[in-house]
Amino acid sequence: MKKRRLGTSAIVVSEIGMGTMTFGSSCDEATALRIMDLAYDSGIDFFDTAEIYPVPPEAKWVHRTEDIVGKWLKGKPRDSVLIATKVCGPGHGWFVPPVRSGKTALDRKNIQIAIEGSLRRLGTDYIDLYQTHWPDHDMNYENAMETLTELEADGTIRAAGCSNETAWGLMKAIQTSEKYGFIKYQQDPCVNCRVHESCKRNRDVCCGPCACME
User: Fold this and answer.
1) What is the CATH number of domain 3-207?
2) Catalytic residue at 53?
3) Which of 53, 130, 141, 185 is catalytic?
4) Where are the domains of the chain?
């Protein structure tokens, strides 16, 4: 399995990552555990989840994916697996987040509540890659980036990233990080990136080559 560095961080991951967003909904627990075993045995060491998984995001099974990944993780040496998870930002009308009564945001309070829950469900004391999940362009980015910086400083996370961000939002985050010396996003698994080539160019300039699928 080929490896790729995650941005400019110290983390080197398998070129192929294992996504888990259906684990606990359309994919039952037993099947999910077998899939993760097969991926791990094939050389994949990068596993991605989120606090609102599985999809579709519904209260009846929210958090189930992290629970399943946490159960699986107990049977593996923790330092042999790179875990990525996400804090849910606002749904902006696309969906109602089934956490925190739907009032999700990317501020200090929400990030702290989210990561404490993820750590508990995953059964770990640190996250390798912690990502913001859905942007909040109307709020200032200083709050989120400062909080992520503090989490890195105390060893709770090793690197930060973003998911479903736009080119404009990614540049705003990078600008904030450079201005205040905050943590910089190292990865951008972005739906919108695949639509807008400009986002890829901006990401590469700011973050350098990363572990995103090209």
Assistant:
1) 3.20.20.100
2) yes
3) 53
4) 3-207
